[in-house]
Write a structure and sequence with these properties.
With 71 residues, the chain is of the alpha+beta class. The protein contains 3 helices and 2 strands. β1 and β2 form a beta hairpin. The longest helix has 12 residues.
Length: 71
């Protein structure tokens, strides 16, 4: 299931704005190996969280990083 489909299907259950860390529920296993070789990508992800993202990740293929924000 994609992240967007997961969030759409579970948004009413989770009340996304009240969940403290969506990263506890949705994980991209690919990130660990990529971040080990490219720590700057971890910094980008952490930057999304510093800027208020509810969730941040790389896409499944690793071609993009994204953050999900309330507004």
């Amino acid at each position: 299931i994609s992240v967007s489909a997961f969030l759409l299907n579970r948004s009413s259950d989770l009340e996304i704005t009240g969940h403290p860390n969506l990263g506890d529920l949705v994980v991209n296993d690919f990130e660990a190996s990529v971040f080990a070789k490219h720590p700057e990508l971890r910094e980008i992800k952490e930057g999304f969280y510093r800027d208020g993202a509810l969730y941040a990740s790389m896409s499944g293929s690793g071609s993009a990083a994204f953050g999900i924000f309330r507004q």
